[in-house]
Amino acid sequence: MHKAYISAGSNLADRKANLEFALDSLAKGNTVKKVSSYFETEPVGYLNQPWFLNLAIELESPLSPLQLLALCQQIEASCGRVRTFSNAPRTLDLDILLFDDIMINEEKLVIPHPRLSERRFVLEPLAQIAPEVMHPAMKKSIRALLEECPDHSKVHLKNAMDSTNSTDKKS
User: Fold this and answer.
1) Active site residue 93
2) Out of 95, 115, 143, 151, which one is annotated catalytic?
3) 68 belongs to a structural domain
4) Separation CA 47–CA 56 (nearest Å)
5) Report field, pTM of the whole predicted structure over 0.85
6) Range of the domain at 40
7) Residue 136 lies in a domain
8) How far apart are CA 52 and CA 155, in angstroms?
9) Pick the catalytic residue: 14, 24, 83, 93?
């Protein structure tokens, strides 16, 4: 079995339902070990879109990295994801952040995720469930990467009662 950390995000339709669909789908044939709280996050890159609902997942899986990538892409497509342009609005985005302590640099897949250390919307949820996990290339914990993160975009912890499908911007 392998340990993988996945970032999940949604900013179209019912964001919470999309993330729950991802969790349910990932649990088929794998074991979801930990799930962060929901975090509402402002868009990064392309800004003219609704805010995201994000979370991080610790997954135990028998799949190889490429098999897990294929599963994530299948789940995204099943949730209605259409790839139009970089950083476009989406019903569901699943990114493999870490996989065991390996490093992969292939055309289809790079692990650790190449922008992991630069994205507060990824690091905040991941630090909640795996603060001491080490980035295999940078040799720093997720907590340390969060403390050093150059991204100052807004990331708001959502409580269980407040993680609805609202896409209103918060400041």
Assistant:
1) yes
2) 95
3) yes
4) 22
5) yes
6) 2-160
7) yes
8) 9
9) 93
